[in-house]
Amino acid sequence: xxxxxxxxxxxxxxxxxxxxxxxxxxxxxxxxxxxxxxxxxxxxxxxxxxxxxxxxxxxxxxxxxxxxxxxxxxxxxxxxxxxxxxxxxxxxxxxxxxxxxxxxxxxxxxxxxxxxxxxxxxxxxxxxxxxxxxxxxxxxxxxxxxxxxxxxxxxxxxxxxxxxxxxxxxxxxxxxxxxxxxxxxxxxxxxxxxxxxxxxxxxxxxxxxxxxxxxxxxxxxxxxxxxxxxxxxxxxxxxxxxxxxxxxxxxxxxxxxxxxxxxxxxxxxxxxxxxxxxxxxxxxxxxxxxxxxxxxxxxxxxxxxxxxxxxxxxxxxxxxxxxxxxxxxxxxxxxxxxxxxxxxxxxxxxxxxxxxxxxxxxxxxxxxxxxxxxxxxxxxxxxxxxxxxxxxxxxxxxxxxxxxxxxxxxxxxxxxxxxxxxxxxxxxxxxxxxxxxxxxxxxxxxxxxxxxxxxxxxxxxxxxxxxxxxxxxxxxxxxxxxxxxxxxxxxxxxxxxxxxxxxxxxxxxxxxxxxxxxxxxxxxxxxxxxxxxxxxxxxxxxxxxxxxxxxxxxxxxxxxxxxxxxxxxxxxxxxxxxxxxxxxxxxxxxxxxxxxxxxxxxxxxxxxxxxxxxxxxxxxxxxxxxxxxxxxxxxxxxxxxxxxxxxxxxxxxxxxxxxxxxxxxxxxxxxxxxxxxxxxxxxxxxxxxxxxxxxxxxxxxxxxxxxxxxxxxxxxxxxxxxxxxxxxxxxxxxxxxxxxxxxxxxxxxxxxxxxxxxxxxxxxxxxxxxxxxxxxxxxxxxxxxxxxxxxxxxxxxxxxxxxxxxxxxxxxxxxxxxxxxxxxxxxxxxxxxxxxxxxxxxxxxxxxxxxxxxxxxxxxxxxxxxxxxxxxxxxxxxxxxxxxxxxxxxxxxxxxxxxxxxxxxxxxxxxxxxxxxxxxxxxxxxxxxxxxxxxxxxxxxxxxxxxxxxxxxxxxxxxxxxxxxxxxxxxxxxxxxxxxxxxxxxxxxxxxxxxxxxxxxxxxxxxxxxxxxxxxxxxxxxxxxxxxxxxxxxxxxxxxxxxxxxxxxxxxxxxxxxxxxxx
Length: 1063
Fold this sequence. Notes:
About 55% of the residues lie in helices and about 15% in strands. By secondary structure, it is an alpha/beta fold. The strands form six sheets. Strands 8, 9, 10, 11, 12, 13 and 14 form a seven-stranded mixed beta sheet that branches. A hairpin with a 5-residue loop joins strand 11 and strand 12. Helix 2 runs antiparallel to helix 3. The termini are far apart.
């Protein structure tokens, strides 16, 4: 037939173009970052190249064998093109090909395509693909083609491909619509892929529906490849995610390494090759070095290489549940490690700073409380003197200011404990009514002469005993109530305690509220209330004392005890603070009940007349709450109602005394006068006096006839004596001993003192004491150790003898330390009279207490003479600290006689490197120096104590010589007072002095330093013959120097002198 040359050229160019386009695509893809998407597209281009090249050969050959081979190759390329082109689309569209069903579908499809290729390549079974196929030549254009009709496999394959492509193109169109308003390459690349899909679908439809001699699939597949290549060049169509993942793995500063199942090398990223030099020369499949193999096998997750820190992960790489290899990932966590180390250091510094703060607060507590012991104690002693009103007012100001200062100190210490997380809740059994009784006295004393009524509204079912931390509950109530009293000029302060049952058996919620009619709080200030160091309305309240810590501490305490706290307030009308605390009920006894035998009349009638309406309402609630009948007083008078109990306020009683007694007392009514025990009492033998506030306990006591008409002035706690009581006070500081004895002198007790733990241990074995007051901090044997040794003695009386600690360090854990040591209680320094008297009343056998109708008063006369001028001393300060000129001059003598002993002992401690003993000694001298007004010396001793606590040995060695020189300079100044003191000392028989000297020698011989100090202290209390004066100076120095042989020689010489004098 005639060949149309022009058309042949056209078909030839089309066929060549179909080969060139995928070939160009392959070269373009080779220049791009490798990823799964680019790999799939690369294989699709190779398939297109094979398919189009084979078809070009088919067009040009006339030999059947060559045409058949071209057909086989064409279908092989056709499979590669469609399969990997669709995989490329799936990857680009981020369809998870790892999903189980997608993987099953892919595997089935691949098996089907392999079967198709097998059929095409098998000459005996090709009819399954084609019903018939004959090689023919086109009569018009002269190219060769197979005239064939598709079989069942042919139709299924192309139908499947057409359906799959249509589904993908619909999905892509929907996604394109979704991002139609967005710009960027993604939208353009998606448009190119959709067009490319349409281009591929068109020849499939034509192959299935129409029959042409020319095949359009190769030509249109080239067009589709061309569109995708344009996107590759212009829009970077490959998945940025795949490229990004590859870049991260290769360039991130972490180790990625892959090994096969036998730990042969497969791959590693650049960073891994930089960290492990052996990876530079290793080839795929080679065994890893021992070091690298150990990284795979080791269970360690934290790896350190040089200065870098890594966190290791191992991932098994499994195919069909069979491990084929391992992936090692070592994340570089050096920055995180360094940050964590910095955080640890910062945390350590913060903890050290907090510890320093706690130590500082502990020291400050000690420093403030110790001198306040003298101030408060001597103030109490002076208040017993015959003073003018002006002087008594001054002293009361000192006393009240000291109490305020102690409150501030305690607030700061509590806040420090809360901040450091060391505040402990110490639960124990307690009686809530006892706590309420104490609180009422505290609040009434705080109210003073202000026109403010104190009201208690207490649940009548309150148990007799609860289990919890009563001291902390009391502290919260006091903090809130003190604020209420402070900011209420007139009106009332009301404490309410109600119970609510809890789900847990024997547990109740104490719902506590404190309400007042004070100035109230502005709404904008409510959020500030529970903050630290916060006081609201500071301009208005600038004259109100306080740290601003009370409510912050209260909130923390309540929450620590498992409760919640809140506030309601209306500015100008008052406030209500409320909180709840869960407590365990002990037993089933109710704290306050009305006995059946006390209620003989039925009903019992109660009436009253009060100045304050709220108290009258309280009386009515109590009456009706206990099943009694309440009648208004005017109704009772007018209707002549028989009243069993008539309650009247003190102020009303004063004004209507005659008319009240005329009607009610004359008719047999029991008259009950409500009295503020802090004010002057109204005496009347015909009335039962009830201390305010009126609440369940004292109401029931009246109805049960358990109270009498008696008054005690509660402002002074010395309302008893104990002349038969034997008391031992142990303290290494002579001045503290004198202060304690002076405070307790009006109680007429028999008080012994011991200046060391060793002496106290001996004294308790020779005499039975009812109470031992034990100083906490003493040299050699402190109070804790002394108590433990006492409890270890095989003496039942001593094992049960009350021992009460005296401590100036009332800080974290004090109660637990003392209790663990065997102490029964403790009193904080400075000693407050009410505290130590309450402890004596609590622990002294009741039969030894002699109650008094009026408080004991010890008249102390201060000599009216000019104050002496003493070099280096602030005499005014000294007398102020000591409380009287007489005690001041006595203490000067005590200070004088210890100068040689203490200075030598301090220098000895320093020479021997005994910094702890040095610190204890300067601590004691700091207090005694301050007591006599040697303020400069006291300050220098204080600085040395601080250095000792901080371990600053260099400063101690550098400064101590000058301080000792200053200390010794007081000896000639105070010598007259020391000599005068000698005249006041007790004179004892020479035999007694010999006995003490022998005890001293025996103590030194057995190296019993406590015994030696005790013997020397005993000698100091006696008046010695003049002949022993020089020896006594030597003896003090030798004992301080622990010169055993010299002490014994000097002691023997003194004994010889005494024997010679006796002869």
